[in-house]
Amino acid sequence: MSGALAAYYRKIPVSHVEASLRSYNICHPWPEDVNRKNIGNIADQHFAPTKMSVEAMIKENIPDQQITITGNTVIDALLSTVEKRQKSSIKRRPRKYSDKKSSE
């Protein structure tokens, strides 16, 4: 938030990654939602993770030429990891879990 404000005041273009992820409650479950809304107001570029995020920004009157859909970084990383794991020639041994309770 402070980086975006500093850039704004120095007339440096602001880019907002994961733009328009909204809970529509600035206190729950993510208090940083208020930061996303504020940065969205000053950003020059908005990188949206989903089509739903793009639609939300258009409803908030953000010009669509400032919006780029990028995908969800967390989901993309998960899918990439799963794909690499499936292609890997390294086979992992299954973990063995003990039925015994640990002694205290």
UniProtKB/TrEMBL annotation:
- Report the residue ranges that make up the UDP-N-acetylglucosamine 2-epimerase domain in this protein: 2-90
The residues that cross the membrane are: none
**Annotated Gene3D superfamilies:** Glycogen Phosphorylase B
One Pfam family here: Epimerase_2
**Catalysed reaction equations from the record:** UDP-N-acetyl-alpha-D-glucosamine = UDP-N-acetyl-alpha-D-mannosamine
Q: Where is region (Disordered) located?
A: 85-104
Q: Which family does it belong to?
A: Belongs to the UDP-N-acetylglucosamine 2-epimerase family.
Record-given protein name: UDP-N-acetylglucosamine 2-epimerase (non-hydrolyzing)
> Which source organism?
Parasphingorhabdus cellanae
